[in-house]
Amino acid sequence: MSSPEIEALVQSLSRLPGLGPRSARRAVLHLLKRRESALQPLISSLQAVDERMLSCGTCGNIDTSDPCHICRDHRRDGSLLAVVEDVADLWAMDRSRLFSGRYHVLGGRLSALDGVGPDDLAIGGLLSRVETGEVAEVVLAMNATMEGQTTLHYLAEQLDRFDITVSTLAHGVPVGGELDYLDEGTIAQALRARRAVG
Amino acid sequence: MSSPEIEALVQSLSRLPGLGPRSARRAVLHLLKRRESALQPLISSLQAVDERMLSCGTCGNIDTSDPCHICRDHRRDGSLLAVVEDVADLWAMDRSRLFSGRYHVLGGRLSALDGVGPDDLAIGGLLSRVETGEVAEVVLAMNATMEGQTTLHYLAEQLDRFDITVSTLAHGVPVGGELDYLDEGTIAQALRARRAVG
């Protein structure tokens, strides 16, 4: 058996998504062999994140400032608002560099199974932002899962009373996707939304 | 884009074996949502390991003391010495709780491809330990890879001049293994070493 310090670290690491006990043990050995080049930089990065990261009171993004750099960026289009389930979705969308508006993070999705109702999500905050009259279009960028789509329909109903455009992401063949590997649902959606060429 | 603090942490984590950039990002979000239950305990565990873990000057194990708890344990059989490539192998062998002797960590394997020669491994230390006359049997517990077996044969030659038993691990079907999933080499070895039943 290795020492309790190492077992504790293996336990902490193996709770991370994507790491099991075996890969956590390998990671610990990797770190132990590279104290100055890997272990100590990792500790500093974790401490920096723990000390500096805040939740944005406006959109729910995680950043070093509140409001976050996206909410403060005046070159962003304040009339365009993308609603996402999670901070990870916000980052993924922002990495595409195509969306020039602002975001609103719900903090989850409606799920009867997990006992997540409308009051557990940041829906009140979303409606308040729309009520200011600044927003002209809300893009409901939920995941294409059952629960994501349930959430999307619920939000579309809630937003119906405002005089704004409510849109959602297109379904279809992902870029680089091969038909052979796609499920029938995606192919059906891509067919229904087919476009004229040339 | 997320903030530089988060990007730095994603980078640090994605260098760990078993984690790519995508899973590192997921792990960071997991930690950010659980500061007190996951992020802070992880920092403490890493710091404890960084501050307290030492390399054993006798066997090469990583432990909180030098000599390590295995080298200090007088209930262990000092006449039996298992030579392993890496600390991870020592831990794996010790988890089996069957081996009652002590260990010697080589710190790698001979590899012409990676430019690892005999001088890069803790072979001198091994020979010194055997020279004391305390060791009666050396178990060469190398991995069953090409390089592991090359190292094994090199060590067997080096140990030939001592009046001791030199042994190695048995090859065969792993416990729980299904023949259908095993390579021909393993099956051939298991057949050659077959035992009478009953």
UniProtKB/TrEMBL annotation, chains A, B:
It comes from the Bacteria. GO terms for molecular function: DNA binding; zinc ion binding. The keyword Transferase does not apply. SUPFAM superfamilies: Recombination protein RecR. Residues 79-174 form the Toprim domain. A zinc finger (C4-type) spans 56-71. InterPro entries: DNA_Rcmb_RecR, Rcmb_RecR, Rcmb_RecR_Znf, TOPRIM_dom, TOPRIM_RecR. Pfam families: RecR_C (PF21175), RecR_HhH (PF21176), RecR_ZnF (PF02132), Toprim_4 (PF13662). The keyword Zinc-finger applies. May play a role in DNA repair. It seems to be involved in an RecBC-independent recombinational process of DNA repair. It may act with RecF and RecO. Belongs to the RecR family. This is Recombination protein RecR. It comes from Pacificimonas flava.
